[in-house]
Design brief:
The complex is a heterodimer of chains A (108) and B (118). Chain A has 108 residues and is an all-beta fold. Helix content of chain A is 0%, strand content 58%. Chain A has no helices and ten strands. In chain A, strand 5 and strand 6 form a beta hairpin. The termini of chain A are far apart. By secondary structure, chain B is an all-beta fold. Chain B is 0% helix and 54% strand. Chain B contains no helices and eleven strands. The termini of chain B are far apart. Chains A and B meet through strand 4, strand 5, strand 8 and strand 9 of A and strand 5, strand 9 and strand 10 of B.
Chain lengths: 108, 118
Amino acid sequence: EIVLTQSPGTLSLSPGERATLSCRASQSVSSSYLTWYQQKPGQAPRLLMYGASSRATGIPDRFSGSGSGTDFTLTISRLEPEDFAVYYCQQYDSSLWTFGQGTKVEIK
Amino acid sequence: EVQLMQSGAEVKKPGESLKISCKGSGFTLNNYWIGWVRQMPGKGLEWMGIIYPGDSNIRYSPSFQGQVTISADKSIGTAYLQWSSLKASDTAMYYCARLIAHNYFDPWGQGTLVTVSS
């Protein structure tokens, strides 16, 4: 089973700043199968990025994803107030789906 | 609009059984894999398993195999997650979600909060 480790656990930033979130896999993941979700308090997760770098419908272009192999990154170029949330990466391999433990982006 | 509607919150005692549901609207649930995800209080997301309601093909996460049962009723386009004997440690929010391209989950249901307490 592939384990995903996200860092940092918490990111304290101000609106307008750039956020860089990391997702590291215990073994190589096809970039086609690396996904990011956003979860706000009291809400279900929402699809953000799929295929490592493709934005889901309605996701603004301040969100971008990159990476390959074992290292993937979600970048938020300029944080808006609505972007403060928890972000999870997820991968698929060999009929198993796993999530990272999440990165909380909080207001500094 | 494509949506997944889950059954309401449940409060149960240890040892009781429970079955929660997930119904699709705006799409044919029977034609998609549907996944279940657990989120314990204040914790992250854990994939539990998936089902293809069209033929009830099921895959379980090794962590949840034998702990829960995933099923579906294709005649009413509904997926289920059930427990035969709940434990306090089953207290969590449970989400269903549609699996796209055998890859990622979208959309997600609103969640069903299960509380197990004596």
